[in-house]
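Here is one chain, start to finish.
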Amino acid sequence: MDKIFRFADREYFWAFLLIALLIVLFAVMRIFRRRAMLRFMSAGMWKELAPDVSDRRPYMKFVLWVLALAAIVLALARPQFGSKMITEKRRGVELIIALDVSNSMMAEDIQPNRLERAKRAINQLVDNLSDDQIGLIVFAGNAYTQLPITSDYSSAKLFLSAISTGMMPRQGTAIGAAINLATNSFNPQFTGNKAIIVITDGENHEDDAVGMATAAAEKGIVVHTIGMGLPEGAPIPIVENGSKGYMKDKKGEVVITRLDENMLQQIAAAGKGVYVRANNAQVGLTTLFSEINKMEDAELLAESYAEYNDIYQWFLALATALILLDFLLLERKNKYLKNINLFE
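Its structure:
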């Protein structure tokens, strides 16, 4: 397998902002210097008075310093190659969370709103995972994979934080499409237990979600559901002309989104899973996590790099060579080479 390249201390990349600032300052200084010169003499007169002064070499020297500083920053970030691949045996289940991101998930009957509360609960669930693998699917009118199955929990949190209702081009609640996509997203080589958790308000259901849950169960995949919202429902907040309002129908009446609890119960029953209704006290992922932990664990084979070799020395050597070249490159033209133009 190919070696993997990484930077161990990526926080040093912030130093590139300082390099960018140096470039801006250099450009400003050169502009002011040229304007100051032209106040007293023309460009032609300056060349006659200082024929050995090069216009290009200050730029060349500055570029060398910028490249040297960039190489030093890369060296500080500790570039590394993974040198030893090991295969570890771990125990766990494969879990895919399908999260509804339709506009109705912005309703505030569950504080701060349905979607944000669900994201916080998923984040807490990820903190409690150890040997399990997790994937994320988002859906509204269509379903999309946000994060493929992985054991990288940091990536799961990163992708989770980017989820919003604005990421979906088509509205709706295609629960069946989400379950079908999740069913086909599991690792086919994994023979252990697999689970899908659908988090949605279930409203405006568009497809055969019960049939998709039944098909998943026939493949040994358990489908759990969590109902986000309260039975009495709530309006859907929107922002109009910079002020908060609520979504209205064609008659001008405020739209109230309500939890379709009956549908979610049917989906969970067809998927041989558990239905949980969220409220302002708890979302229900803890209950489902307990159900998942009851599943018979299966051994997972996970490959990872056990050792990394530092290669920062190469970047330091490059920086040193660039600085030496800068010292050798004089501001003035070499009297023996000044008539040579490599660009002609």
